[in-house]
Design a protein that fits this description.
The model has no long low-confidence stretch (mean pLDDT about 95). The protein has about 475 residues and is of the alpha/beta class. The strands form five sheets. Strands 2-1-3-4-5-6 form a six-stranded parallel sheet, with helices on both faces. It has a five-stranded mixed beta barrel with strand order 15-16-17-19-18. The structure holds S-adenosyl-L-homocysteine, iron/sulfur cluster and FE3-S4 cluster (F3S). Iron/sulfur cluster (SF4) binds next to helix 7.
Length: about 475
């Protein structure tokens, strides 16, 4: 470690976010020198795995890279590559290991290349141990709790030749006001809370994301106002369980609840659409249903993970609702908010799950008629209570049950989606269709995608579309100005 670097650290302010702004300034000088050597800006690529929370984190990481002088690219043959990882299912981890070999190959061609890993998988000791021994070419590893220190970590990576590992077990800090680079100019995710306290018995998220922490409502409102001033018309409020916003920690002194927060966000002028995810059925209040029913901006969509339809399995999963609770809740929601789309997550093959249990899930699918469902095969996560449960289900039985569930979901989803054909709806035009560039992709309030002919200058606007055909999970529509 050079004296120059030690001096840099000693002179850094202690308080955040000033400390990180100071490190961005230092990084800028470093990147300027690199730019001069290369006669071009060094390039940086972030590859994101996992959920919307990770996607939002990547926008913050990209913000730091751009502010420091990197040119962002989607090509992993870049001067700096960062993988923002997920570990919710083992498959996610295997994908990452699979891709690291390719990065090593790129690094052999470009000796100056740096590689970093962050995100949920890095909060697992076994994963980090494996990387240390099998992937020694990685330059920097950090976790979910210290991503706000990215500028500081990057600078130390450039001044050291050994792998840097900085993982925290938890944090109570929320650092605001660092730069971000949004993927879409007209819509944005906003974290309203971090972490999870629910400990569903199969799930690793509470272990890798820590305890629930809610952001202060004033900070959230101020961030949305800044985004709206910058052209954003749709926000997606993010949290593992948004319904417990403000209830489980002391950051938010007035204990503003989620429905109250929504009411305040609704008043922001210029904001047109509000989405949120995810809602845990056990915490979805009547007040939330009322706020949604009366709102002009909250989208007609609720993602309400069921996970399983058998009360016995739900209990073993520690979900804290029964099959009947879930069905009654959906009936109440549909009565109060006609036309709302309800989507869900399902897990097949939880320890001890029998064919009869899966029949119960199919029964819920047929009663609730989900507009869409993500069906996952249970993945054993070391350290979770379910990993030690007896009755792990054999893979061929899981496969049969998975196929049965998928068929049920596809049938109800199709009938649900078909009901809108012939109607006229507002859609937000989001992007050019990759398969057919004469088409645009738009999104209905209920979250379904519509393809329609239109010019790219419509992107970012809410326009009215006549729905012509249903294709299962998307529509073909027509726009006439
Ligand atoms: N907080 C959200 C979900 C976060 S994880 C919620 O509670 O709804 C997203 C989805 O991954 C979960 O809804 C669940 O269906 C699935 N999932 C989580 N852990 C899993 C595991 N061990 N195996 C398979 N699927 C899992
Ligand atoms: Fe995982 Fe359950 Fe928390 Fe969702 S609510 S993140 S499934 S523990
Ligand atoms: Fe994956 Fe972490 Fe999200 S484990 S699903 S990226 S919270």
């Amino acid at each position: 470690m050079s004296n120059q670097y030690l001096n840099l650290i000693q002179n850094a302010p202690a308080a955040e976010p000033n400390r990180q702004h100071y490190f961005i300034g230092q990084l800028k000088q470093h990147i300027d020198t690199w730019t001069a050597k290369l006669s071009r800006k060094p390039t940086a690529c972030i590859t994101t795995f996992g959920c919307q929370m990770n996607a939002r984190d990547s926008e913050k990481l990209a913000g730091i890279l751009v502010a420091s002088g990197f040119l962002m690219t989607e090509n992993e043959e870049a001067d700096f590559v960062l993988y923002n990882t997920c570990t919710v299912r083992d498959h996610a981890n295997q994908r990452i290991y699979g891709r690291l070999g390719k990065l090593n190959h790129y690094k052999k061609k470009n000796r100056q290349m740096k590689i970093a890993l962050c995100g949920c998988m890095m909060q697992e000791e076994i994963a980090v141990e494996k990387i240390k021994t099998s992937y020694p070419f990685i330059d920097l590893i950090f976790g979910t709790h210290n991503i706000y220190k990215f500028a500081e970590l990057l600078l130390s990576m450039f001044h050291n030749h050994e792998m840097i590992i900085d993982i925290w077990q938890d944090t109570d800090q929320i650092v605001e006001d660092l730069p971000t680079e949004r993927k879409f100019p007209f819509k944005s995710g906003i974290n309203i809370m971090f972490g999870c306290n629910n400990f569903c018995s199969y799930c690793i998220v509470p272990y890798v994301r820590g305890r629930e922490r809610s952001r202060a409502p004033e900070e959230i409102i101020a961030e949305i106002k800044r985004l709206v001033a910058d052209g954003v018309i749709e926000v997606m409020l993010l949290g593992q369980n948004v319904n417990s916003y403000g209830l489980t920690d002391s950051v938010n002194e007035k204990q503003t609840t989620f429905p109250e927060l929504l009411r305040r966000i609704e008043e922001i002028e210029g904001l047109e659409r509000i989405r949120f995810m995810t809602s845990h059925p056990k915490d979805l209040s009547d007040e939330l249903i009322e706020v949604m029913a009366n709102s002009k901006k909250i989208c007609r969509h609720l993602h309400l993970p069921l996970q399983a339809g058998s009360t016995r399995i739900l209990e073993a999963m520690n979900r804290r609702y029964t099959k009947e609770d879930y069905i009654n809740l959906v009936e109440k929601i549909r009565r109060a908010i006609p036309g709302i789309a309800i989507t869900t997550d399902l897990i097949v093959g939880f320890p001890g799950e029998t064919k009869a249990d899966v029949d119960e899930t199919i029964d819920v699918i047929n009663k609730v008629k989900f507009d869409n469902a993500f069906t996952f095969i249970y993945s054993k996560r070391t350290g979770t209570p379910a990993a030690a449960m007896p009755g792990q289900v054999p893979p061929d039985e899981v496969k049969q049950n998975f196929d049965r569930l998928l068929k049920a979901v596809q049938e109800t989803a199709r009938t649900q989606v078909d009901t809108l054909v012939g109607e006229t709806h507002d859609v937000l035009a989001e992007e050019v269709n990759t398969q057919n560039p004469t088409l645009l992709n738009g999104r209905l309030s209920n979250n379904t995608i519509v393809h329609f002919k239109g010019s790219p200058d419509l992107i970012g606007q809410i326009i009215t579309i006549k729905i012509k055909e249903s294709h299962g999970f998307y529509y073909i529509g027509e726009f006439s100005r």
